[in-house]
Amino acid sequence: MSDNTFERSDALSLARELGERCREHGISVTTAESCTGGGVASAITAIAGSSSYFETGYVTYSNAAKARLLGVPQPLLEQMGAVSGEVVEAMVAGACIDSGADLGVAVSGVAGPDGGSDEKPVGTVWLAWGDARCQQAQCFHFSGDRASVREQSVRMALAGLLERIEDMQVKRRGKQE
């Protein structure tokens, strides 16, 4: 993800901008969250009128919930672990399929203070954005305590949704020309 003004904004400002863009372009969104525990959905629904574009939010903290609610294959969870690009891509695809949303975000990470490993230390967070057909995952390494890692994850999730909406509009304009 590029370094832009979205990433430096607070979550409510990002959520407000997301709402404006979703309403302007008729886009619906969904969330699939693990380490943020519904923080992304909370930021989105803090904005009045969000029911016009926010379909649903899934908080799938356990692997069993990821499999049951989002259709993440159990072998994928066992092989890659919940904190992986492959799993967050499957999460966002499942959320979009189940909810019918145009665009979604998924987040899974190690917020701390425990649970980290040499391979996936505390602050490792995978995010994926996309829809039922196409997803893109990215790994981030956030610093700070648990609350800080979660807040940075929420902001990045929202910033990524805004970037994807911009990309969608650029592609639509390109097809019209």
TrEMBL record:
Stored InterPro entries: CinA-like_C, CinA_C
Query: Which Pfam families would you find in this protein's record?
Result: CinA
CinA C-terminal domain location, by residue?
A: 13-163
Please state what the protein is called.
Answer: CinA family protein
UniProt organism field = Pistricoccus aurantiacus
